[in-house]
Amino acid sequence: QVQLVESGGGLVQAGGSLRLSCAASGGTFSGYAVAWFRQAPGKEREFVAGISRAGFSTTYADSVKGRFTISRDNAEITVYLQMNSLKPEDTAVYSCAAARPVIRDTIFTSSEHYPYWGQGTQVTVSS
Q1: Phi and psi dihedrals of 21, rounded to 5?
Q2: For residues 118 and 27, what is the distance between their CA atoms, to the nearest angstrom?
């Protein structure tokens, strides 16, 4: 069973950049699709970005498309979320999640499909 540990959150001004990391502890992400979700105060958790288990497919929420990039390292230990052109509305707790879909290129966008979660990291974007 893989454990997920996020890092890289912080406070940044609007227009700035951050890179979040999601590290696999006690194993690797081999065979896992990985996604990032976020939850702002008083709002539902929402899908941000996902990458397939082989790394060949990615998908993004419309709100972050063109600004955020998800990637995974060749060692299958870390998944990254590069966030550029940050906006105050990106402020949230960001969490990574992992699942083992049967179909290679599947990326679930609903949180209910992910059994493994990290603890979350706070991202705050000031205006």
Answers
A1: -120, 145
A2: 14
State how far the alpha carbon of 94 is from the alpha carbons of 41, 54, 71, 85, 105, in Å: 12, 23, 16, 17, 23
Residue 43 pLDDT level (bands cut at 50, 70, 90): very high
Query: How much is the pLDDT for 116?
Result: 96
So what's the pLDDT on residue 104?
A: 86
| Residues 23 and 7: beta-carbon distance below 8 Å | yes
Long-range pairs of 26-32 with CB within 8 A, sequence gap ≥ 24:
26/1, 26/2, 27/1, 27/2, 27/3, 28/2, 28/75, 28/76, 28/77, 29/2, 29/53, 29/72, 29/76, 29/77, 29/78, 29/79, 29/98, 30/76, 31/100, 32/2, 32/98, 32/99, 32/100, 32/116
